[in-house]
Amino acid sequence: MLGGINNQLFLQAFGGFFALLILIPLLKWTFSRGKSHVARPAKSGNSDEYGLLVPVSRPANYIEGEMERKKLIDSNIKANLVQAKDGIALLVFPEELSAAKAVLGQK
Predict the structure, then answer these.
(1) Are 82 and 42 in contact (CB under 8 A)?
(2) What residues does 88 pair with on adjacent strands?
(3) How many C-beta neighbours within 10 Å does residue 86 have?
(4) What distance in Å separates the CA atoms of residue 107 and residue 77, rounded to the nearest whole number?
(5) Where are the beta strands (DSSP E) in 1-107?
(6) Model-level pTM?
(7) How distant, in Å, are the alpha carbons of 3, 18, 58 from that of 66?
(8) pLDDT in tens, 29-54
(9) What confidence tier does 89 reach under pLDDT thresholds 50, 70, 90?
(10) Cα separation of 68 and 88, whole Å?
């Protein structure tokens, strides 16, 4: 004891303040909105909203699209099959568009 003051009670009181000083920013960061590190769920767009990829065909169903995609992959053409808002689309890069049409037998 220093000068008749109970030091343990004094230190416990300041310990609570230090704990609050640590918890306040931590809780503000935890419950803040708009800065999430979790990826948002993917949303589908139209077939022309996929960056550099352009649609080469629009198959009637997913099975036909997968068969066409396998043909293109076997011909070393990168292709993606997507379920867009305007239906199923088979997408390729623009520089491979004419080769993809030739492989699929299109004009």
Answers:
(1) no
(2) 83
(3) 13
(4) 17
(5) 54-57, 79-84, 87-92
(6) 0.59
(7) 85, 61, 11
(8) 888 777 677 777 878 788 888 889 99
(9) very high
(10) 12
